[in-house]
Amino acid sequence: MGSLLARSVPAGPADSTGPLAVRQAALRRSLLQGLRTAALYAILTLLALLSLAPVAWMVSSSLKSVSQIFSYPPRFSVETPRWSNYAEVVQQLPFVLFILNSIKVSSLCTIGQLLSCSLAAYAFARMRFRGRDVIFSMLLATMMIPYAVRMIPVFLIMRAIGWMDSHWALIVPSYLGGAFGTFLLRQFFLTIPTELEDAARIDGCGHFGIYWRIVLPLSRPALASLAVFVFIYHWNDLLSPVIYLSSRHKMTISVGLALFQSLRTTQWHLLMAGATISVIPVLLVYVFTQRYFVRGIALTGLKG
């Protein structure tokens, strides 16, 4: 009888493996994960604001007078914007022409790099030939050679061709490939499933057909990334235009800013206005290409 009563007595409180404990543990994990995510976003937001502070100061300074720029304590806010700074910059130097020259040089160099590097990258990634890996290693080794070492030989070649004071000296080398762009695209091409290439061969495509119809459409993220890198590099390049260009009407925006600073005593408010103008095309390029950065070409090719 006693044993029967003992068996009929309810058990103690639910153990830690019950449904309620499981729900509480899941809630704690969810709360901790939410706190980690919030902390991560707070840190990233702070870093983004710190990185944007110089840009904000440049834009703010472009709307001030010199006395307001060097006032103490410094202020980001602008009480009375001086929009005339931008008009004065354009009047003192042909900044519009400088920008058009930079757009011409940077765009053509970007097209040349995308075309030549993608062709070379496809050959290294998909074609088999003797010495392929050795040639690719030699190509990568050229990335170790600084531009200062190549500057004089390239200058002598351009002078012998007769391309001094010409945009050709800045544009044509981009159509001869590049180690960084070839490496970047080759690594991207290697991730494309070989089944797509086999299917294209069954349909009668050769190497160029596979490159043009299969590889390039799936490589938009890599091509967009390389395009941004190349465009920004040539847009901000100062050394090469200084070496090869001497006529003012052929100068790029980077040379124009340096020329504006050296003409007379530096007018910081006008210099900041010119710098702000020069940043706008780069921002537009990024805005129109950033959506491709996060796309994966392997999954894109296997959809459906």
Topology summary:
Blueprint: H1 2-8, H2 19-61, H3 66-69, H4 84-92, H5 95-126, H6 132-141, H7 147-161, H8 168-171, H9 179-189, H10 194-202, H11 207-218, H12 220-236, H13 239-244, H14 253-263, H15 268-289, H16 297-301
Helix pairs in contact: 2-15, 4-15, 5-9, 5-12, 5-14, 12-15, 14-15
Short description:
It is built from 16 helices and no strands. By secondary structure, the protein is mainly alpha-helical. The protein has two domains: 43 residues; 218 residues, Orthogonal Bundle (MetI-like fold), CATH 1.10.3720.10.
Give a structural overview:
The chain is mainly alpha-helical and 304 residues long. The protein folds into two domains: 19-61; 84-301, MetI-like fold (Orthogonal Bundle). Helices cover 71% and strands 0% of the residues. It is built from 16 helices and no strands. It has helices spanning 2-8, 19-61, 66-69, 84-92, 95-126, 132-141, 147-161, 168-171, 179-189, 194-202, 207-218, 220-236, 239-244, 253-263, 268-289, 297-301. α2 (19-61) crosses α15 and α5 runs antiparallel to α14. The longest helix is centred in the first third of the chain and has 43 residues, at 19-61. It is flat, with a radius of gyration of 30 Å. The model is unreliable at 4-12 and 296-304 (pLDDT under 50).
